[in-house]
Amino acid sequence: MADVTLIQSKRNAGAVAAAVAGAASQTVVYGRSDENIMLLIRNTDDTNACRITVAANGNMAGDQGDLEVDMAVSTDAVIGVLESARFLAASTGKITFQILDQDDTAFTGSESDVLVYVLHAPLSLVD
């Protein structure tokens, strides 16, 4: 399981972003103050729909359960802003998400056809 590199957005400016090819399970280092991370997902697979599942981690709001977002073939999704109280694993400082089929089984397509961006909100808005 690899950490996805964060893209730091900038207020009134642009930030160059490179997609990361998806994997069955990936992690994101939370890194800063609360509620500033979003997942940007592009399902470029032209035959397989997918489900992105962000794991709840038993913190204060972890009992709300996992967040599941179903994506049709060749669609994009914005997931978040993700709050630490529900998704952050305190022991690792990370959020974990998976790419699955929509019945919660292993993805039948190629995970690398699901492109992932992880975006930090601008520093001036959250810090």
Description:
Helix content is 6%, strand content 39%. The protein has helices at 84-87, 123-126, and strands at 2-3, 6-8, 20-21, 25-29, 37-43, 50-54, 67-71, 76-82, 94-100, 114-120. Strands 1-4-9-6-7 form a five-stranded mixed β-sheet, with no helix packed on it. The model has no long low-confidence stretch (mean pLDDT 86). It has 127 residues and is mainly beta.
Largest sheet at a glance? 5 strands, mixed
Order of helices and strands: EEEEEEEEHEEH
Residue windows where pLDDT falls under 50 for at least 5 positions:
none
Number of domains as seen in the coordinates: 1
Per DSSP, the total helix count is 2
Q: What structural class do you assign from the helix and strand content? A: mainly beta
Q: What fraction of residues sit in β-strands?
A: 35-45%
Helical fraction: under 10%
Mean pLDDT: 86
DSSP, total strands? 10
Q: Strand order, main sheet: write it out.
A: 1-4-9-6-7
Query: Which CATH C-level class is it?
Result: Mainly Beta
Q: What is the CA-atom radius of gyration, in angstroms? A: 14 Å
CATH topology: Jelly Rolls
